Amino acid sequence: MAEGSGATPEDILVVSGFTDFKDVLVYGLNEAADCTACWVGMDATGDGSSFVAQTWDMFAEAKAGAAWTHLVADGEPEVFVLTYGGCVGMMGMNEHGVGVAANNLNPTDAVPGVPWTFICRRVLTRETAEDAAEEVMRARLCSGHHFQIGDGSGTGISIETTGKACARIPIRESTYAHSNHYLDPELATVEREADPKGCSPQRRERMDAILRDGRGKIDGAFIQNAFRDHDGKPRSICSHDYETSSGMRIRSCGALVMNTVKKETDYVTGNPCEGEFSTFRF
């Protein structure tokens, strides 16, 4: 990337690991972070599909740099990912049907390590969700993230990380939702104080309720509509330029719904309520 763009490798690294650099260098920043992720198992769908899905919520200006990219690299599976200029790639799916969503968490123990975007790319080199989860569990962590992993067998795996630890969260039902706070009680002991202007618990509860109500009939269109939900707007699943304590304005800059059985991804740039989803198929 550096050779192609004329930027330095250091600049590319900072762009690819922005939230992790922020966590390490600006310790104690009290700021909301968005993204609502979910997993849907085969028992909750009408046709035996399984889904990993996520909204991508960032500062409003990030929308302009977002790019949906089909990557083909020698010796690796083909992948379809959300990225932005200078980033190696974030959430997405590979040709084997392994999908990963990732949302930001806020621990106090961030340390120099592997940025989460590189972990996502490593996850997408694997052929099963279990093997992909091993890549997260063995990584030299940098900061806090939640990785939602699934594959075409219907397996769903939830992993939370801090800078120094990680935990696999049991998924005991056919649907599962996650946002931007820790569910593991031990990891929660190193969580930063929540931004009073944030909305992570409300979004997770709302997404969980929508999925519960839809069990047995969930499909890609159902999840797309869930991502358009405005309960609590602007601090909603489909977020609309709400202000955090630091003054940053957060909005949904994209969303993707990955059918890990059919190996296809529905995706949209910007607020899901304002655009039509397109489809990429391997």
Instruction: State which percent range the strand residues make up.
Output: 25-35%
CATH level-4 homologous superfamily? Penicillin V Acylase, Chain A
What is the rounded Rg?
17 Å
Secondary-structure class: alpha+beta
Distance between the termini: 25 Å
CATH architecture descriptor name:
4-Layer Sandwich
> Topology as H/E string?
HHHEEEEEEHHEEEEHHEEEE
Which fold name is given in CATH as the topology? Answer: Penicillin V Acylase, Chain A
Please identify the top-level CATH class: Alpha Beta
Mean pLDDT across the residues is 94
Percent of residues in helices: 10-25%
Put the structure in a nutshell.
By secondary structure, the protein is an alpha+beta fold. It contains seven helices and 14 strands.
Q: Could you give the topology of this structure?
A:
Elements: H1 2-5, H2 9-16, H3 18-25, E1 37-40, E2 51-59, E3 66-71, E4 79-84, E5 92-94, E6 99-104, H4 116-123, H5 129-137, E7 145-150, E8 156-161, E9 166-169, E10 175-178, H6 200-214, H7 220-226, E11 242-243, E12 249-259, E13 264-269, E14 278-281
Antiparallel strand pairs: 1-2, 1-10, 2-12, 3-4, 4-5, 5-6, 6-7, 7-8, 8-9, 11-12, 12-13, 13-14
Helix pairs in contact: 4-5
How would you describe what is shown here?
With 282 residues, the protein is of the alpha+beta class. It has a single domain, classed as Penicillin V Acylase, Chain A (4-Layer Sandwich), CATH 3.60.60.10. It is 21% helix and 27% strand. It is built from seven helices and 14 strands. The protein has helices spanning 2-5, 9-16, 18-25, 116-123, 129-137, 200-214, 220-226; strands spanning 37-40, 51-59, 66-71, 79-84, 92-94, 99-104, 145-150, 156-161, 166-169, 175-178, 242-243, 249-259, 264-269, 278-281. The strands form two sheets. Strands 1, 2, 10, 11, 12, 13 and 14 form a seven-stranded antiparallel sheet that branches. Helix 4 runs antiparallel to helix 5. It is globular, with a radius of gyration of 17 Å. The two termini are 25 Å apart.
